[in-house]
Amino acid sequence: ERGVLKEIYESAKGREWTKSYNWLDAYIPHCLWYGVDCNKNNNTIKLELPSNGMSGTLSPSVANLSMLEVVDLSDNDIKGSIPTEIGLLSNVNHIRLAYNLFVGNETNFGTSLKKLELLQLHGN
């Protein structure tokens, strides 16, 4: 999962983030990186980086964090389209991507989001 998180960091210009404590530190487990929360098996279950100066794009590889339950990247400056691969996150219950610079009308994420309770895409 470190590799996936590294792709997200790089595509969203992690060096410019307001807070990126411990990100990419080879000696610190990814579960201790700022905005990342894990379950007891060290699977990433939350990626919460709202209002964090993120820009660039959201990497489609986010779908490889298969245990993800919460994605909150709201109030940033992320550009491009929202990856439809998000629809593969079958455990996700909250997706907050509001107030970014996403473009396009593609919000068909498929039928795998059976646990989804909250989807916020406004302000894009």
Short description:
With 124 residues, this protein is mainly β.
- Quaternary structure state of the chains depicted: single chain
Backbone CA Rg: 13 Å
Q: Please give the alpha-carbon distance between the first and last residues.
A: 28 Å
Shape: globular
Number of helices: 1
Secondary-structure element pattern, one letter each: HEEEEEEE
Largest sheet, spatial ordering of strands: 1-2-3-5-7
Biggest sheet, open or closed, and with what strands and sense?
Answer: 5 strands, mixed
User: Regions with pLDDT < 50 over 5+ consecutive residues?
Assistant: none
Give the helix/strand layout:
Elements: H1 2-11, E1 36-38, E2 44-48, E3 70-72, E4 79-80, E5 94-96, E6 101-102, E7 118-120
Parallel strand pairs: 2-3, 3-5, 4-6, 5-7
Antiparallel strand pairs: 1-2
Q: What report would you give on this structure?
A:
- This protein has 124 residues and is mainly β.
- Helices cover 8% and strands 17% of the residues.
- It has 1 helix and 7 strands, in the order αβββββββ.
- It has one helix spanning 2-11; strands at residues 36-38, 44-48, 70-72, 79-80, 94-96, 101-102, 118-120.
- It has a 5-stranded mixed β-sheet, with no helix packed on it. The protein has a two-stranded parallel sheet with strand order 4-6.
- The protein is globular.
- It starts with a helix and ends with a strand.
- 27% of the residues are buried.
- The model has no long low-confidence stretch (mean pLDDT 94).
